[in-house]
Amino acid sequence: MSARVFLIRHGETDWSLGNKHCSFTDIPLSKQGESQTDYTREWDVGEGRLIDPKNVTRIYCSQRTRARRTTELLRLGVHYHQHYHERGEDSTKTAAMPQQTGELAESTIQVTPCLNEWNYGDYEGLTLGDIARIREQTGEGPGSQWNIWTDGCPNGESPEQVSNRVDELICEIRGVMESTAASWPGGQVVAHAAGEPRDVVCIGHGHILAAMALRWVGAPLHMGVRLLMEPAGVAVLGFEHDDLKQPAVLLGRRPGR
């Protein structure tokens, strides 16, 4: 089986429901967001499902509460407890979980700022309508022309900063996968350690995960305007012909894969 990277957006919050830009503000999941995540777990997580915990070798999570709660509800990295390694503090925290049955990932969850949402700066908490009015008042042009993928956010992050941030994580993930790689005739390099877990899971936010998908295939961020992720949605990154030298975005999958 090919190595894959699963990108999972956190469930709905009151701010996302209201179309407010939320990055550094630590908004919790709404009840609907928790229900959405439960539904994703029931359909996509478990033995023989899209995300089979026994095939997971590494789990990454944003520092924000809404992403961590999503991780808890997905029951990834669980075997009676979830272990979170706080990279910013270089410490590990443990959360008790209900007893589970079946094959379960025991990977320590890497809590990393690389998966924090694009810093919206002055646009934090604002809707697109709010941003349009502000830009018109400040003479920056019609708000409808604002494009985060090319313009970035005032007093927040630029596309270049976000690109560098996700590139750092992608480089680490590729290193994890290449550590079990084997070279085949013709120059193909595949993740090839029989019986070893090789999938990676990243739990984060809409814009940062879309940026990660773009950078995974080497695309510039200005193409991101048409990439969307629904709350508690799952996207899949992989490799064409299972070749680690040919990263790809999986647009469709067969049931059971």
TrEMBL record:
Look up the domain of life of the source: Eukaryota
| Pfam families in the record | His_Phos_1
Which GO terms fall under molecular function for this chain's record?
Answer: sedoheptulose-bisphosphatase activity
Residues annotated as coiled-coil are none
Q: Which GO terms describe its biological process?
A: ribose phosphate biosynthetic process
Protein's name according to its UniProt entry: Phosphoglycerate mutase family protein
- Positions binding substrate in this chain are 66
